[in-house]
Amino acid sequence: MNKQEQAASVAVIGSTSEAYARKEEVERCIFSADFMHFIMAQPSPDYWTPRPVPLVGACRYCGQTRPTAEAPAGSIKTQEDADAWASRTCNCEQGRRLANVWTARGRINALFADFSTDVRDMLVEIAELVQDEEIGATSTALDEYSKCKIYKNAKGVLFITRTDTSTRQESV
C-alpha cells in the first residue's frame, strides 16, 4: 500500500468514526428531548409547587422582627400589615403602649357602638392621653343619659367605664 492509499484509508476511517459520533450525539439529543417531554407531562409533586413566603414584620420602634405565622389567619395581607402587627405585639415600651391603645380602641368601639365614629375616635384620643399620662383622668358626658370615664390606676391599668342613667322625669 502506498502513502496515498494509506492517507485515503485513514481519512475514510476518520470520517466514519465522526459519523458514528454524530449519530450517537443526535440519538442522545432525541432521547433527552423525549425524556423532557415525558417529565413535563407528569403531574408535579407537592414539593415542587411554589408556596407563598410568609411575611416577617418588623417593629416600627425598636426594629425587632417577628414571623407572621403567629398572627390570626387572614389578618395580614401586606408588608405594612405585618409591620403593624409586629409593632403591636412587640415587648418594647412603645410596642406595649401601642398594644394598650389598640385594646382600648376595641373596648371603646364595643362599649360605645351606638355612638358615631367621631365620638369613638375622640374617646380613643382621650384614652391615648390618659395612657401617656398627659392627663390623669377624664369624665365625659356623651348625651343626656350616657357618661364615659377613662382613668389609669396606680398599677398602670387603663379603665374605660360607661355609665347609663335611665332616669326620666315627666311632668303633667
Main sheet specs: 3 strands, antiparallel
From the spread of the alpha carbons, the general shape counts as elongated
Helices, by number, come to: 4
Q: Estimate percent helicity.
A: 40-55%
Structural class: alpha+beta
Termini, distance in Å?
145 Å
The count of strands amounts to 5
Order of helices and strands: HEEHHHEEE
Strand order of the largest sheet: 3-4-5
Instruction: Report low-confidence residues grouped into runs of 5 or more.
Output: 6-14
Strand content: 5-15%
Question: Overall mean pLDDT score?
Answer: 79
Rg (C-alpha, Å): 38 Å
Describe this structure in words.
The protein is of the alpha+beta class and 172 residues long. It has helices at residues 3-41, 79-89, 93-111, 117-131, and strands spanning 56-58, 65-67, 137-141, 146-152, 158-164. The strands form two sheets. It has a three-stranded antiparallel beta sheet, with helices on one face. Strand 3 (137-141) and strand 4 (146-152) form a beta hairpin. The relative contact order is 0.07.
